[in-house]
Design brief:
Layout: E1 2-5, E2 8-9, E3 18-19, E4 23-27, E5 32-35, E6 48-50, E7 57-59, E8 62-67, E9 70-75, E10 79-83, E11 88-92, E12 99-105, E13 108-113, E14 123-128, E15 133-138, E16 149-153, E17 156-160, E18 166-169
Antiparallel strand pairs: 1-4, 2-3, 4-5, 6-7, 7-10, 8-9, 10-11, 12-13, 13-14, 14-15, 16-17, 17-18
Length: 174
């Protein structure tokens, strides 16, 4: 089964959309869509979704508003876990940095962030879902510009950097 959520609702092709909070499950065997429990956080765009082992995680993103006739972006730092068996959501510890990309290794999520207001940190962070904790994982990653792409193969994380080619991350041995 596959899950699809959020997105934007538009009435015409020329207007901007309104972020949605609905969440759907697709069953390819039956070729059917089932609406699940709505996302409990604020509606947004630009969020990430990833799963390493267990339930999927959803977080970050932004919403846009107009203030004093200028666009304003509200950044979100929340993280949510979806439980498919009970069709329920659990709030997890916030992401206190601006995620740019992510990959999963073993039972941990690795998220790269770049320094950006209001967040003053950059580097590679690791999230342990079973303990609901964040740690700073890699100091040398601060100098990378990872806006090219992110993926993992054979328990190694890879970042396609904008300038330097491919950067490889191997997690420490347990």
């Amino acid at each position: 089964k596959a899950y699809l959520g959020w997105g934007e609702v538009t009435t015409t092709a020329s207007e901007g959309g309104t972020p949605a909070k609905d969440f759907w499950r697709y069953d390819p065997a039956a070729d059917t869509w089932t609406q699940m429990s709505d996302f409990p956080g604020q509606a947004r765009t630009g969020a990430f979704a990833i799963s390493s082992s267990g339930n999927p995680l959803f977080g970050s993103g932004w919403s846009e508003s107009i203030e004093m006739e200028r666009p304003y972006f509200n950044l979100f730092s929340d993280l949510w876990e979806y439980h498919p068996l009970t069709d329920s959501w659990t709030k997890k510890n916030d992401i206190n940095f601006l995620p740019i990309g992510f990959f999963a290794l073993e039972d941990k999520i690795h998220i790269y962030c770049e320094e950006s207001y209001p967040y003053e940190t950059s580097g590679l962070y690791q999230y342990n879902a079973s303990q609901d904790t964040w740690i700073f994982a890699e100091e040398s990653f601060r100098e990378q510009n990872g806006s090219g792409g992110f993926y993992s193969i054979n328990n190694k994380g890879y970042v396609l950097t904008s300038y330097d080619g491919i950067w490889e991350y191997t997690p420490p041995l347990k």
